[in-house]
Amino acid sequence: MDSSWGAGARATPSGTRDEREQQRTEARERRAAERIAAAEARTEARAAARDAQSHERERMRASRRAEEEQRRAAAADARDARPKRRSSTGSLARTGHATEERDTRHYATELDLDRLRLLHRRGASPAALAHAFKISEDEVAAALAD
């Protein structure tokens, strides 16, 4: 087996066993110190990046707020410049057409004897029924008698 089989040629150990142990201990401590320094550097870099991102986000928020305020002011100016109109409710708001008030003063109520009797059972007086159906009270009394 030659050196092409893996780890390569090994250096022959130099010094005594205690010296080699001392060298390994120093190398271990040096690597640990390097790892700690690298970790601290990463932590500091991350903190600096977070601060920079925070400042950038706050700057963007401020610019968005300013744009929104300008947009609101422009919309308010446009709203104030429009002619005023009354707000409508009901069918006018739904359809855009005003409802017609029909003149029903001369409409004749259809005389239905069953309806007349029903209204009388509900408490309508014969005089009120005669007025509503435009007939005489005698005719109402005759219809109720049947």
Could you characterize what this model shows?
Helix content is 66%, strand content 0%. With 146 residues, the chain is mostly helical. Helix 4 packs across helix 5 (137-145). The protein starts with 16 loop residues before the first helix and ends with a helix.
Which secondary structure elements does this structure contain, and how are they paired or packed?
Blueprint: H1 17-81, H2 91-95, H3 113-121, H4 126-133, H5 137-145
Helix pairs in contact: 4-5
* Tally of strands: 0
Secondary structure category: mainly alpha
Q: Biggest sheet: strands, sense, closure?
A: none
Terminal CA distance reads: 133 Å
Radius of gyration: 51 Å
Determine the mean pLDDT: 86
Tell me the strand percentage band: under 5%
Low-confidence regions:
none
Structure keywords:
single chain, 146 residues, mainly alpha, 5 helices, rod-shaped
